[in-house]
Design goal:
mainly alpha, Growth Hormone, Chain: A, about 0% strand, globular
């Protein structure tokens, strides 16, 4: 079996899982609005996902490191995704939606992190670029956003469960064909996690990026509602995600060519500057078509930032603790940041409109970028140079 063949199931898993992820990210806020929830209540539901991920990401990461398997954990989580999603979409009323949402997110939130952790390690083992594997996630995301956006525009957002279960089933089928990671070491002990919690470089870095990731996650939650607020449709929301994720796929695919030329923190800082500019421009725009055109910036903000941050984290944590470290990174990136972004974003878009939300996101990203520039100049930031 060639290297390329052995990576095909992994690429297909990333493609199909991120296709499901699109449906939740792009259309769940519109679905919840169809169910009669207002912006603040939608923010509460969207905050349940990141809250669940703070517990589920480290839990599944720890189980993965303890039993030295990513594949088995992925299969368990995808089965959980399929069962809980069917139940989640049957719920009516805010409390029922929130409670079932917590179960649903407990299984779904670690899948992306475990998939990326597996991809990062397989890339290292096979001496290929992580971005060339991860780009398949972006292609799945983009394909789904365009097709599902058009389908839901025609049949109604209330039927979003059907494409979701379709892509979820494909993810489960290909998960059984994955090549698992091989770790030549003793299984992780709970005491080993103390090493991560005592790693000052790691913890300070996680604190710095929170300011950028809050703005990123608020955009994930509310760009759909903002486009609708500006007069757009479900189809335009799907198109916006398509444009953004295609640019992200290009960045991931070409990562091997540009990525090693500078220190990873330089790329993180550049992405931070562009994040700030992007949100300030969104705040000033009044035409949804301009937002869609500017979604090209998603690749050079999120794409560059995510690749660089994951690479940086991989360098500063021991190999034995990679899954746990990656999932802690995810818990901050998509967890803590997602809670803050969803709750505050929901109140702001309800009370003051999308333009005020995006203006404050711009200032938040700018603060994080300034912190990162200071961090880069300090000894902590220099530790992972290479």
């Amino acid at each position: 079996m060639t290297n390329q063949n052995s990576l095909t199931p992994l690429k297909m898993l990333l493609f199909s899982f991120h296709a499901t992820n699109t449906i939740i990210l792009s259309f769940l806020p519109l679905y919840l609005r169809y169910k009669g929830l207002n912006g603040t209540e939608i923010g509460w539901v969207l905050a349940v996902g990141p809250l669940a991920s703070i517990f589920s990401q480290p839990f599944w990461g720890y189980m993965s490191d303890k039993y030295k398997t990513v594949k088995r954990m992925l299969i368990i989580c995808i089965i959980g995704l399929l069962i809980s999603s069917v139940l989640f979409f049957q719920m009516n009323g805010l409390l029922a939606i929130i409670l079932m949402g917590a179960v649903f997110y407990f299984f779904t939130s670690p899948i992306g992190a475990l998939g990326d952790s597996l991809a990062q390690r397989r890339a290292d083992d096979l001496q290929v670029s992580f971005g060339t594997i991860r780009t398949w996630g972006s292609i799945g995301f983009a394909t789904s956003s365009l097709i599902v956006g058009e389908v839901l525009s025609n049949i109604g957002v209330q039927y979003m469960i059907w494409p979701y279960v379709f892509f979820g089933a494909i993810a489960l089928i290909v998960a059984f064909r994955l090549t698992d990671v091989k770790v030549e070491s003793d299984p992780i002990q709970f005491s080993d996690i103390k090493q991560l919690l005592q790693n000052k470089t790691f913890l300070i870095f996680l604190f710095m990026i929170v300011f950028l990731t809050i703005s990123h996650r608020a955009n994930d939650s509310f760009i759909g509602l903002y486009i609708v607020q500006l007069g757009g449709s479900e189809g335009l929301v799907g198109l916006a995600w398509f444009v953004g994720v295609i640019s992200e796929a290009v960045v991931f695919a070409l990562a091997g060519r540009w990525f090693r030329k500078f220190h990873t923190l330089i790329f993180i800082i550049i992405a931070g500057v562009l994040f700030s500019l992007r949100w300030f421009i969104y705040a000033a725009v009044k035409d949804p078509m301009v937002i869609i055109a500017l979604q090209v910036l998603h690749g050079v903000t999120f794409g560059v930032f995510y690749l660089s941050a994951l690479e940086y984290v991989t360098r500063i944590i021991p190999r034995l603790l990679q899954s746990t470290g990656h999932l802690m990174f995810y818990a901050v990136f998509f967890g803590i940041s997602g809670i803050v972004g969803s709750l505050i974003g929901g109140v702001l878009i309800d009370s003051y409109g999308g333009d005020t939300l995006y203006m404050l996101m711009g200032f938040c990203a700018l603060t994080g970028t300034i912190f990162l520039i200071i961090y880069h100049a300090l000894p902590f930031g220099k530790k992972a140079r290479g």
